[in-house]
């Protein structure tokens, strides 16, 4: 596997840590953040605050980090590794999303949210840190960053020479977009061992379901499926349906087929969402990770149907991808994800 040091990069040294989903692209001019009228989802006051975050420039750099007891690196991935199949994917991409991303690439000059790529090899990052070959160390909340430049970065890169494949945990659209882009040949990447990653479930919410509609769906489910009490623990093949004050667990029908057909999300989509609730356009659904659902700020409306799922096992995830199976969208949620707006990679 070929990975590269980041030719021209910046690290946000303000001490502010932003959510991994915050922002993917930004502009840097004269070694300062310069968000302008192209950034539509932020108002002028918000952009003014962000533009005051201080950044430092580092060239030919690999960043080693420790974040919530997980170790990994921030590097540059040549898109050729994705094009030739060495970076393995598990989700389809959406054309509308790709079109928007392609357009945005022209309006900015820095990536600020790395794609998340996993590998099987165990690497002793603490040993790399203990070598003391880093140029500088930064301490943030729950996160330590070590800047390795030049020859020290090359030594880290060599440890990936025998890694045959990387697995996309997050960033399918950004990788595919770069593969279509004529002026951008690499992707800012967070590369981490499966040892340090957890796969969390992504739950489904069907909004605004009337009581009579829910009762019809429940009647169908009770006729066709094994239904268990709501407090029954979830495991592979079981989902929990919650509506108002009602909760019950449904055992999905196991199919006499391969791992793809018996993927929980695929079975949920085909057996429950489409057949029981008669929803054939998943655009109607909304999604919540386990941490979001348990967060203080998250709440459901009275007529929302919440469908809780069980996470995909790591071995099942790897086996499915190695067999070139494509999982349904929103099948996995990997944690921990590296923060956004912390490392900036200049690409034009």
Give a short overview.
This protein has 348 residues and is an alpha+beta fold. 25% of the residues lie in helices and 31% in strands.
Give structural notes.
The protein is an alpha+beta fold. The chain has two domains: 6-199 and 335-346, Conserved hypothetical protein from pyrococcus furiosus pfu- 392566-001, ParB domain (Alpha-Beta Complex), CATH 3.90.1530; 202-310, no CATH class. It has ten helices and 22 strands. The protein has helices at residues 44-51, 79-83, 95-107, 125-130, 151-158, 172-180, 211-224, 264-273, 290-293, 314-322, and strands at residues 6-12, 25-26, 28-29, 32-33, 55-67, 70-78, 87-88, 110-111, 115-119, 136-140, 143-149, 166-170, 186-193, 198-200, 202-206, 226-229, 238-243, 246-251, 286-289, 305-308, 333-335, 343-346. The strands form four sheets. Strands 1, 2, 5, 6, 7, 8, 9, 10, 11, 12, 13 and 22 form a twelve-stranded mixed β-sheet that branches. A six-stranded antiparallel β-sheet has the order 16-18-17-20-15-19. A two-stranded antiparallel sheet has the order 3-4. The longest helix is centred in the middle third of the chain and has 14 residues, at 211-224. The radius of gyration is 22 Å and the shape is globular. This is DUF1015 domain-containing protein. InterPro entries: UCP033563. It comes from Inconstantimicrobium porci. It holds the Pfam family DUF1015.
